[in-house]
Specification:
Elements (H helix, E strand, L loop, with lengths): L4 E6 H15 L4 E4 L1 H5 L3 H10 L3 E8 H9 L6 E6 L4 H6 L3 E4 L2 H14 L3 E7 L13 H9 L3 E8 L10 H19 L6 E3 L18 E2 L10 H10 L9 E6 L2 E5 L4 E2 L5 E2 L4 E6 L16 E4 L2 E6 L7 E4 L11 E5 L7 H8 L3 H6 L7 E4 L4 E4 L3 E4 L5
Parallel strand pairs: 1-19, 2-3, 2-9, 3-4, 4-5, 5-6, 6-7, 7-8
Antiparallel strand pairs: 1-10, 10-18, 11-14, 12-13, 14-17, 15-16, 16-17, 20-21
The structure holds pyridoxal-5'-phosphate.
Length: 393
């Protein structure tokens, strides 16, 4: 069978990333955010890797639907719904899924479901300390008091999310943390003792809070995604030896090679005209697959250890690359579109495509198969060039 494209997920990269994150936070384990198909990596595959890693103690998903899906796929570890009560609350409670609540009304619905199921519901308070999205405001401790009195509910955790991170100025984050701590103290003064507290995510790993919260909730860093070069420099200078490796590698096979004369137009709208006789490698991927339209005339890939450029507009299913300088390329050779080499690191691709790093992987079409492998073949060397690894571990 002809396989157009492959996505592989490196267990070795994931393990190294999680170990590095735990080393800098000083925690034994973290909460792995696998919502939204694990930012395109594959929710089940990443949940499974998380379940197999002793440095991961929770999985976070966006809503009940995703949580139930994981339980049905055999994921047994603790699950925390971050945002939406979008499925059956009864089923969630039955499956011991922890739920975040953002309002008293949500807590009432959870309490009613707990009564129906005949089981305790574990609830985490979502506190809005300055993100301005969902959650209780810090002056709503009275609401927490009311929730604490509802039968069937255990107020298990409290959390907030920092909004202005990924750079060296922590002033806004410190204000958010101060509000968070104040609410925890006020809650404690009225008899609410949370078993767990959690705040930080990937872009605030450089922040050392005054209090020791229970765990960090990370997605991007565990998947080996840098938010930006600025964040990479911040973390690697703050923690010498700290590094992240992309878990995901995306390849596409060349389906046609063709030589076109100087002055040929390539792709829709004639945005590219060759200035020399040009050899084109046609790749069977486009924006349907998640290779962004904004990579038109801008994107790059690696083939046979060479960097090659997108020429013309990225169409829905087809993209052309200029391989004039790589004469040995054959039909069937693989273009590496995302992976562990400088120009195809997701944050570099994002910069070129004018989007954020998470978008680069999240937009990968979910129906494409993701296969977990022990490790990848592309290795980053001295942060500057790459080699083909001799032996796969
Ligand atoms: C509430 C919450 N916590 C943690 C995360 C993980 O963030 P990151 O992938 O930057 O680690 C997210 C991601 O969007 C989130 O919404």
């Amino acid at each position: 069978m002809f396989t157009r494209t492959t996505i592989t997920l490196s267990r070795a990269a994931f393990t190294a990333n999680v170990n590095n994150i735990n080393a800098v936070t000083g925690h034994k384990s973290l909460a792995l955010v696998v919502k939204s198909n694990a930012y395109g990596h594959g929710m089940f595959q990443m949940a499974q890797m998380g379940q197999e890693h002793e440095g991961v103690s929770w999985l976070c998903i966006v809503g009940i639907e995703e949580a139930l899906c994981l339980r049905k796929q055999g994921i047994t570890m603790p699950l925390l719904v971050l945002s939406f009560l979008d499925g059956s609350i009864d089923e969630a409670i039955y499956h011991d899924i922890h739920l975040s609540v953002s309002s008293y009304e949500e807590a009432l619905a959870v309490a009613a479901a707990a009564q129906r199921v005949g089981k305790k519901a574990y609830v985490h308070i979502k506190l809005d300390t300055g993100m301005g999205r969902m959650g209780f405001l810090p002056d709503q401790v009275g609401e927490l008091h009311k929730i604490n009195k509802l039968s069937g509910i255990e107020l298990y955790g409290i959390r907030t999310h920092l909004s202005d991170t990924g750079h060296a100025d922590h002033s806004y984050s410190r204000k958010q943390l101060a509000e968070f701590d104040r609410v925890i103290d006020e809650a404690q003064s009225i008899g609410i003792q949370f078993t767990c507290t959690h705040v930080q995510s990937s872009s605030s790993l450089d922040l050392k809070p005054e209090r020791d919260y229970s765990f960090v909730r990370v997605g991007a860093s565990a998947f080996g995604l840098w938010k930006s070069e600025e964040q990479r420099l911040l973390l690697t200078s703050r923690y010498p030896g700290f590094d992240l490796r992309p878990v995901l590698e995306w390849r596409a096979k060349v389906v046609q090679l063709k030589q076109v004369p100087m002055g040929s137009y390539i792709g829709y709208k004639r945005t590219f005209k060759t200035t020399k006789p040009t050899r084109l490698a046609i790749a069977p991927i486009g924006y349907w697959d998640g290779f962004a339209y904004s990579q038109s005339n801008r994107g790059v890939a690696l083939i046979n250890n060479h960097q090659v450029s997108v020429v013309g507009i990225v169409s829905m299913n087809i993209t052309a690359f200029d391989v004039t300088d790589v004469p040995e390329v054959k039909v069937g050779d693989e273009l590496v579109l995302l992976g562990n080499a400088p120009s195809i690191l997701p944050h570099e691709v994002a910069k070129r495509a004018g989007c954020i790093t998470n978008e680069v992987t999240t937009l990968l079409e979910s129906s494409m198969e993701r296969t977990a492998v022990d490790d990848h073949q592309l290795l980053l060397v001295n942060n500057a060039r790459f080699i083909e690894k001799q032996h796969v571990v």
